[in-house]
Amino acid sequence: MCGIVGYVGSREAAPIIVEGLKRLEYRGYDSAGLAVQRGGRIVTLKKVGKVSHLESALPAGAITGSVGMGHTRWATHGEPSEVNAHPHLDCSGSIAVIHNGVIENYSSLKKKLIAGGHQFLSETDTEVLSHLIEELHKAGGGLEQAVRKALHQVKGTYGIVVMSSHEPRKLIVARKGSPLVIGFGEGEYLIASDPSALIRHTRKVTYMEDGEYAVISAEGISTKTLDDVTIQKSVEELSFELDQIERGGFEHFMLKEIHEQPETIRNALRGRLQVEEGEVKLGGLEQMREKLISARRIILLGCGTSWHAGLVGEYMLEQIAGIPTEVEYASEFRYRSPVIQQGDVVIAISQSGETADTLAALREAKAKGATVLGIVNVVGSTIARETQGGVYIHAGPEIGVASTKAFTSQLTVLALVTLMVARAKGLLHVDYKLLMKELDALPEKVGKVLDGAARIREIAGELKNARNFLYLGRGANFPVALEGALKLKEISYIHAEGYPAAEMKHGPIALIDEHMPVVCIVPKDAIYEKVMSNVQEVKARRGRILAVANEDDDDIGHLAEFVIRVPRTFGFFGPILNVIPLQLLAYYIAVARGTNVDQPRNLAKSVTVE
Ligand code: F6R
């Protein structure tokens, strides 16, 4: 949520900043801005909308300088406008701040500063920081002391970069609750809220921790805690490649990421699913294995798509591994004083590993004594670091704002965890090796579903003008219905609802008429007949049925206007296949309606504010 890029070195800062911001644009695209040190003053440029607007407004040669910073914004306080875009300056124009997060006590700080004569231009919480630093700078002690003192007065979350024309060769960065990473180049440093903005320049990085700040100049970097204690940071190597964060010939990142799924699911299984040996090995859980196996209860936490993955996980863990499992919206869990008891294991599911609500819920659970684990995509992210163990999903960078490949990889990892636990508890009633082989076959089966993309595109053309959609599924496919509806809402702006198929007759059935597309997930599993009855109920009300059904289902064609075929698999692995057509359907409908698929309105990847 919001993107930050900073540069200190000997090259021109502005082009490096703009290029980095473009890579971070999926985090927010309401406005963009930059500031560069030039001839003893700070030069800024801000534009509403995408980074390309900022880029085309850059006057050739006018914003030169080798120390600078930039920001792409997802509006929290104040509408998207030039005046609210970052960087924010102090009254004298000599201190500039960019900020991710929310300053919760900005209102009281602002009142005091205004009473002291400061003049504010924007409606943002961030501008308070520039004026507060200006105020504290007056007392002497330099920029570093002013920033440190200001951060002691601030409540809320931040990842900030500060620069000042009083000390023009340095940037000061600080973190509390909003990620920041520093990249080490040859005689230069780069700062970003996400390493994807740095990888073109360096693979060597260090991650800032909460409560730390760093003073960075071309000559070096010093890192301290806010209490002024110097710390030595370790340098890590980034593990992804540049081409993983580029579109690679696809029209959109989302389409690329949908098509990557055979590979990403394989990556989630690699080295872990050992079919020949009949073993599931999850190195990141090794130390917590006993706690997990003997868990009294598992609580899965997440938001949005990751919460949907948790819902599928609940079916898996309860029915196969026999562990009572609850799934909670992280944002609800943290504020309802959850009762945590001995033997509770909390698993946070998060693609980004930075979602503010998930992180806060995890901390709450940890503070109350739960064993906390993570199922996370971004290596080195805050959630990954704050859990006691976990499993990376290894889906690679997900840039499309609508999550696709992360979802199927989360399900794959949940399936692995379930098999590991069930096996250890001796609970499997079906042949374990058979299940392993079925899991192993999923990447190929996903490939088969993707081969049907052209047909899904045609169906999307038929349904693109509908005003509402209903998605129905039962059992582990109920969360798939939720996920299909979420994808459609997010990127096509069509209202859609997911429902348990049988629950439909308790209300939503009133909505069904000949204009209503009803997407029914009807795999040939143990509850096939039940779902078919629900499909009949839709048919009787003349709903437009689009069925996701197995290849060998000869009956569904009599009921459905459109049928998308998926290969058969074991029941609990079904969601991994059944969601793929729904991702493609949402994608092609959005493209047909001309929306911005990768950067849908009002959304941002990685929600780092509560
Ligand atoms: C939907 C989507 C969001 C995220 C949610 C959680 O397509 O992307 O609903 O799933 O914001 O994000 P993570 O998984 O990063 O915690």
Question: Can you give a write-up of this model?
Answer:
The chain is an alpha/beta fold and 610 residues long. It has three domains: 3-238, Glutamine Phosphoribosylpyrophosphate, subunit 1, domain 1; 253-440, Glucose-6-phosphate isomerase like protein, domain 1 (Rossmann fold, 3-Layer(aba) Sandwich), CATH 3.40.50; 450-596, 3-Layer(aba) Sandwich (Rossmann fold), CATH 3.40.50.10490. 34% of the residues lie in helices and 23% in strands. The chain has 18 helices and 26 strands. An eight-stranded antiparallel β-sheet has the order 3-2-4-1-10-9-11-14. A hairpin with a 4-residue loop joins strand 9 (181-184) and strand 10 (189-192). Helix 1 (13-24) runs antiparallel to helix 2. It binds fructose -6-phosphate. The site of fructose -6-phosphate has 15 residues, from helix 9 and helix 16.
Element layout with pairings:
Elements: E1 3-8, H1 13-24, E2 31-38, E3 41-48, H2 51-57, E4 67-73, E5 88-89, E6 95-100, H3 106-115, H4 127-137, H5 142-153, E7 158-164, E8 170-176, E9 181-184, E10 189-192, E11 204-207, E12 212-217, E13 220-225, E14 236-237, H6 253-259, H7 261-269, E15 273-274, E16 279-280, H8 289-293, E17 297-302, H9 304-319, E18 325-329, H10 330-333, E19 344-350, H11 356-367, E20 371-376, H12 382-386, E21 389-392, H13 405-424, H14 432-451, H15 453-463, E22 468-473, H16 478-492, E23 495-500, E24 517-522, H17 528-540, E25 544-550, E26 562-566, H18 574-593
Helix pairs in contact: 1-2, 3-4, 4-5, 7-13, 7-14, 9-13, 9-16, 13-18, 14-18, 15-18, 16-18
Fructose -6-phosphate (F6R) is lined by residues 303-306, 350-352, 355, 358, 402-403, 486, 490, 606-607.
